[in-house]
Amino acid sequence: MSASSQATNGQNKIAKPQGFDLLIYRVKKYFGRLDPYLTILGIGLWLFTYWVLCEGLQVWRFTKLPGPVAVSKDWFSTTPFQGISIFTAEYYDHIAVSCRRILIAFGIATALGVPLGLFMGWSRSIRDYIFPLIEVLRPIPILAWVPLSILLLPGFEWPVLFLATLASFFVTTLNAMLGVDSIDEEYFRAAGCLGSSRWDVFMNVVVPGALPFIFTGLQISIGVAWFSLVAAEMVSGDLGLGYLIVDAYMNNVTVPMVIAMITLGFIGYFSSALVRMLGNKLMAWHVKELNQQGR
Do 170 and 253 fall into the same domain? Predict the structure, then answer.
């Protein structure tokens, strides 16, 4: 057997970690860096500052807010004093309703905004027709749309979905358009020289080239959808985390209000992380390029 064959066989015998072993390997690799410890330190400093202001030194005005100890006692209690905890079904009903609304609104905004943005970036005629209208409507605050949505749309659900979709739609569309604008003109010339049709250029140059901007826009878009949803639920909702916040405020129970706000933060973070993971999966070439640049 030649030396090269032995080396090849030796490499084949080195099995790559799979399943649970792969998970352990990734966890060890993650905690072998400085980043997670800085994250933990940042969260710890925030919690400490929150405790000092509300419960430690009881700084003026902050005494009106429940501190982290009071919040955690109710949040993790089987018999919460102010009615909401991880052991109450109502808490999960609010989360489920808000998540369902976000999924629908974000899905509609993505399905409409990404193709429209790509076509606007690719075709000057389409951009000239649609872009001025978007630029006129985009600066209007979401709360300004609330009365109109309640008048035009039936029930509680449709106005909330409309407001969350609208805010997310503008971000998604503009980022997709900017993604097309960022593509080097040489790629279009090269495709034309090779005899590619306009559809081939769109599918093989425009769409892949715009993906980094699209997924950046989607991460921003889902965050925008969350705070628009909360604003809509505060005004015209009957369930959801936004409704829970305003209902707690109106009934002068502050702990559920803070619980809902922190829950929104965690869910918003994980939803953005899921979009980011999907983008990294679909753009492995882009992630590899950023790693080579040390970013």
Answer: yes
Spatial distance between the Cα atoms of 166 and 164, rounded to a whole number of angstroms: 6
Return the structure tokens found at 167. 């805010």
Residue partners of 293: CB distance under 8 A and separation at least 6: none
As given in the structure block, the two tokens for residue 157 are 């659900």
Do 125 and 35 lie in one domain? The reply is no
pLDDT averaged over 10-residue windows placed end to end, the chain, 295 residues: 50 58 73 81 90 88 88 91 90 94 94 93 90 92 88 86 92 93 84 80 85 89 90 82 90 91 92 87 62 52
CATH number of the domain to which 285 belongs: 1.10.3720.10
Residues 94 and 200 in one domain: yes
- Quick count: other Cβ atoms within 10 Å of Cβ 5? 9
Q: Which residue has the tokens 């999960």?
A: 92
Range of the domain at 22: 18-65
Burial 64-100 (b: 16+ CB within 10 A, else e): ebbbbebbbebbeeeebebebbeebeebeebbebbee
Look up the pTM and report it. 0.80
Cβ proximity of 242 and 98 under 8 Å? yes
- In whole angstroms, what is the distance from residue 198 CA to residue 182 CA? 18
Supply the DSSP symbol for 239: S
Q: How many angstroms separate the CA atoms of 69 and 75, rounded?
A: 10
